[in-house]
Amino acid sequence: MGFPGYFLIVADFINWAKQHDIPVGPGRGSGAGSLVAWALGITDLDPLPYDLLFERFLNPERVSMPDFDIDFCMDRRDEVIDYVAQKYGRDRVSQIITYGTMAAKAVVRDTGRILGHPYGFVDSIAKLIPLTLGISLDDALGESEAARKDNNLASAELIARYQSEEDVRDLIDLARKLEDLTRNAGRHAGGVVIAPSPLTDFCPLFCEQGGTSPVTQFDKDDVEAAGLVKFDFLGLRTLTILDWAVKAINAERRRNHEAEFDLATLPLDDLATYALFSRGDTVAVFQFESRGMRELLKRARPDRFEDIIALAALFRPGPLGSGMDKDWTARKHGEAVVTYPHPLLEPVLAPTYGVIVYQEQVMQIAQVLAGYSLGGADLLRRAMGKKKPEEMAKERAKFEAGAAERNVDPRVASGIFDLMEKFAEYGFNKSHSAAYALVAYQTAWLKVHYPAQFMAATLSSDMDNTDKVVTFLNEARAIGIAIAPPDVNSSGYAFAATGARAVRYGLGAIKGVGHGACEAIIEARARGGAFADLLDFCARVDSGRLNKRVIEALIHAGALDSLGSNRPSLLVQLPDVMRATEQAARERAAGQVSLFGGGPEPALSIELARCDDWPLAQKLSGERETLGHYLSGHPLDPWRNELNALTGFDLGELERILSQKRDRRGEAQVVIAGMVTAIRKRGETMAFVQVEDGKGRLECLFFRDAFIEYGAMLGRDRVLVIEGSLSDDEFSGGFSLRAKRCWDYRELCAAGQRLDLRVDLRMGEAMAQLETALAAYRPGKTPLRLLATTNAGSGVIELNGAHSVRSEPELIDLLRALPSVGEVSLHLPRPWQP
Model's pTM, two decimal places? Predict the structure, then answer.
């Protein structure tokens, strides 16, 4: 087919990457079906055992340009592109341009801005355009053919304003003229062209202002039309995670004098790994971490690699919507009979229990049943995808004629053709599915056998994404991994495994602490050992990379806890310490270290002040500001018993609650409790409120009526009890709650029905301490019941009237801290119950 040069170029830069310890993916797309690609090291999965077809990649009967999509480690992909540029000449290698166009919402906003309309006016119009991918202004105005077929595309309110308001009509009419015009130029994420001579022989180049790397001025389609060959250098974060985990594992194995571990030699029959898949414990497992996929895994209970390939192909909208996943699962577990459309097709469909899952199976059916060549079968598959009636009529006649030659009943052949046509719409490329299933298996294997190293690498890969860090921390704890807080005497830049079931927080995950500051701390620790106190720390770490703001962030995150009695003491000491170290630095610079020279530098010594520790809430607030979440506890910890008694569950149990209470609409009516951590308001009619309780997070949607009634309650850090409809959130893969009613937890406490205390009055000063604590919360409306123990025995004391208290959350916390109080229970009202 004339493509050996292409294969050799790809093999060259892939093998160069592997030789330079740059992680490369096992394959991607249809190229994984090429035996030559596997032999050259381009792909890592032998295509023969899995029936991966070369003709799905390159078709001898319809010659087209080959296209290997190569995954590289996200952090080092640019090194491979740089190698290619050096080898073939920088004037012959370039990345490819992309053009951004003005879509419906964007063109309205840009046009309104240029015309000088107020932001609120333009924003109100843009928001009337439905949130549908690829929608045009003609669609939104109901004037397109697509809008006439789909009523959801047209916006009645936009049409009304367009017809009644002249300003809106002028704005929209001008925007329609500009719609789809090119707005800006960018750089293709991974596309690279290599030309046989300078690129300017083939196409113009473009370089953005101030840039140094030109790109082709032709986009990817025009580049290929000009005869240039495109290569895709793609970045895959999972490869970086695998690389970090394997390096950590091998470092430990070297310390234990064990042989190094090679991910490429993993056996694909590990029972523990398949058990993890079957339990759905696949958070952080590549391509298998969404909640929907985890539900499918629990039903499917995969026990072989072919199952993982199939599930990766089945978990897509088409197959899920058609019920293919249910059919496949039922057949696998003997709940439905495995049947084949024709006995000849059993070898083709046996790996998927008689269900047509892959595009390659459509091709093999045509080959086996109707005598197609695999090249011709690929043309048939393409024709089925395009659904052109004339073309399909020709192919049907050809298929039935070929089947008749093999003594297949014409009615059976016609039915099988119909079946192929149906499944061609849903079928997935098995070569791609198999290659990515291998990456998924590798991540799952590491999670089972080296959980600490794997979770440390996973956490390190997303240190800048607080939501993901919280998710992965919760998962690490769920599988029994202890998370140690950041510590300048122990932590590196990234998260690191410190044992089989222990991970140390990375300094780089602290907001406001950059890479340079982390390196300076680690270098100083390597030179002089552990830091003794704050003065020693500031004296030894390069002050050019460590300023006051960075140190304050380290203190609030708890990274300097080992250098002082508590965090407020460290903050009080900081000004004096920095003055002393700066003075010492100035003296060194001025040559005043020793009067006669040659003597040792005198040790710094100042008195370090101390003060009382902060309350838990203040300490946790500092952690949230610097880490993005609470690490050493949660503000709701003192009241967790009361909140759980109110709702019956915490936010970490939403999956169980929804599965148990789901109604016919897929919703569950629940009451949840949590602290507000973020609020996004949309105009005056809607708010998205994120609540958390230390066990999980949930986004609550307050639509018009609920927002008007309860909007005043929606404040950051307020503890709310919310009644609403819990459902799946397809956008985030988690859950969302549509709020109906809402109560402030503090107000529910104020209406407390009774406060029960178990008190040991035999302890000295017990009654006096209790009275002092209660006095600050009197008068109130909540009666007390004391289950008291004295030297004479035990009994119950009822206190009400003037002795009743204001049952505020802080009182519960205060009472639990008293040594004589053993148990505190506040009985709260449930206003949502009739």
Answer: 0.83
